[in-house]
Design brief:
mainly alpha, 15 helices, globular
């Protein structure tokens, strides 16, 4: 098993390199980079949609893509100023050299400095990380702790009134978009129109440092109650129905009939025999669910509840063409995703010891 883990950790290196290379090539083809945006500001114009269209509004001339020596939107500016802007953002070097320098820095865990925030990318990520960890960890934990037992109960009581009504409830929850449900929670419970039971913004209160230990814990979860509810409400359906169908599929197999014929109780059959096989497909989807909840799934929730996390940071950086933050976030997301995938594979062996990844060729 140790040799398998070592091979998987080594495989992270070429995988990470390939992902960074592909995204770097895509970025080079995208118009409206940081040089163009700075030129637009110097000309007194703002680039449309963060430079995505590649035009400087009011200038009437298209801006060249990254790496080009000609910026037609800056024909009235001193060429020396343009060259200085290129040096400031590192665009005075060819693309392959910029990529190689980025890889060398990442190998030393140096993610560079933001173009527009005057801060190190590592410091920015560490500053936003508590929000993303809080939303991602608790949402994923609650989702799995509720959905798996609920799915098992539905499978055992398949076709009953409980099964029908619970299916109706979770499908209705799935049909409501998370951001719409979040707005509804704000209107009802956060002082929108009815009650003001929960805070509307931030991860903690202004007087957090003055509270006792129990008070800090209560304040922390008080602020997280609505965002986490909005995040998980739409994810119950997929995981619950997956758990139910997985257990139903195993319940009808021959080894279950044999276990019952031996006189085992239904509880022993369910948790000692069916559980191992049924949980494999659920564990397989854990890495993707965790990463989605941890980063991408919380963007709108962060905006609605004024939570400044990694999702919002990555989105704003992409719109502003803040490449060091974009690639630094991508680097972190990719490494974490690959490690979580490895942990998911290792969890297989805990659920079902018959699985032996180390023995596979």
């Amino acid at each position: 098993m140790l040799s398998y883990i070592f091979r998987r950790l080594l495989l992270i290196i070429p995988t990470l390199f390939g992902i960074l290379l592909i995204n770097f090539l895509i970025i080079q083809a995208a118009p409206g980079g940081p040089v163009e945006q700075m030129i637009a500001k110097l000309e007194g114009f703002d680039s449309i949609a963060g430079g995505a269209t590649g035009r400087i509004s009011g200038g009437g001339s298209e801006v060249a893509t990254n790496g080009s020596a000609n910026y037609r939107g800056a024909q009235g500016l001193d060429p020396e100023l343009i060259a200085e802007i290129e040096r400031m953002y590192g665009f005075d070097k060819p693309a392959h050299e910029r990529f190689w320098l980025m890889i060398k820095s990442y190998a030393q865990l140096d993610l560079g400095k933001s173009f527009f925030r005057d801060a190190q990318v590592t410091d920015l990520i560490l500053e936003k990380l508590p929000v993303s960890i809080s939303l991602g960890f608790w949402s994923t934990l609650i989702m799995y702790l509720v959905s798996i037992p609920l799915g098992i109960s539905k499978a055992v009581r398949h076709g009953s009134r409980f099964d029908v009504w619970s299916s109706t409830a979770i499908v209705l929850g799935y049909a409501i978009p998370a951001f719409l449900f979040a707005i509804l929670l704000v209107i009802v419970f956060a002082g929108g129109s009815y009650f003001q039971w929960f805070p509307l913004r931030g991860l903690t209160s202004a007087n957090f440092d003055e509270l006792s230990t129990l008070g800090k814990i209560a304040d922390y979860f008080w602020h997280l109650a609505l965002p986490i509810t909005a995040l998980v409400i739409g994810h119950f359906a997929t995981l619950t129905l997956l758990a139910k169908n997985s257990f139903l599929d195993e319940i009808n197999k021959q080894y279950v009939v044999t276990a019952r014929a031996k006189g085992l109780t239904e509880r022993a059959v369910l948790y000692k025999h069916i559980f191992r096989n049924a949980m494999l497909i659920i564990i397989a989807g854990f890495p993707a669910a965790f990463i989605a909840m941890f980063f991408t799934g919380s963007l709108l929730i962060e905006v609605i509840f004024s939570l400044d996390g990694l999702g919002l940071l990555s989105f704003e950086s992409a719109m502003n063409r803040d490449y060091p933050v974009v690639f630094g976030s991508l680097f972190l997301f990719t490494v974490l995703g690959l490690i979580v995938k490895l942990v998911g594979d290792l969890t297989y062996t805990l659920v079902d010891p018959r699985i032996d990844f180390a023995g596979r060729q």
